[in-house]
UniProtKB/TrEMBL annotation:
Keywords: Signal. It comes from Janthinobacterium agaricidamnosum NBRC 102515 = DSM 9628. This is Putative secreted protein. Residues 1-19 form the signal peptide.
Amino acid sequence: MHKTISIAAMLLACASVSAQEAAPTASADAAPLSRLRLFGQNGAMVSLYQDSSCIKGMFSGGEEKVSGGMASAFGSLIGSVENTSLGMPDTPTTLNLAKKDGIFSKAYFKEYALPAGKPSSLRLHFQDVSSFYVANGIRYESRAPSCGGQITFTPHAGEDYEAAFEWEGKQCSVTIKQVIVKEGQTELVPVPVALAPSC
């Protein structure tokens, strides 16, 4: 009986050690993440390339089309497109998103989980479509603001980011800002970006 109890105790001890050794391994396998919010609407072309420091070709794979695809274009056209949230805090951009709505162009956002510590790249282009319209069968077109760029950045674990177009007079730039919440107030702090080459 004594030998039976000793063997059982040894087996339990081994199982306990194995469980303790396995726990850190499971934790280490969990990749650290960050979150990125991107905006879209008709007139905006936004593509995300995760874990890449360059912009891949059209048929190379790895492209996530945030805005500019058929489904999002139709949803933006008829106003049925919905936001996709991972729980990021609101910013002045999201709270005033309806102000960006145009004719047949509802604005929306999508949030993505990104691998932290690895570069991700964006290709963005915006062309104001509110000046394109048809009246009495005649198509009217006037010169409208446009903006675009290819950028890359490296997110840090546990941080939230927001990418957007910024206008200063007639000058446009593509920026990424970290979303920081302090004492109930949200701050948008610019982070370093670099031009993303094609690959």
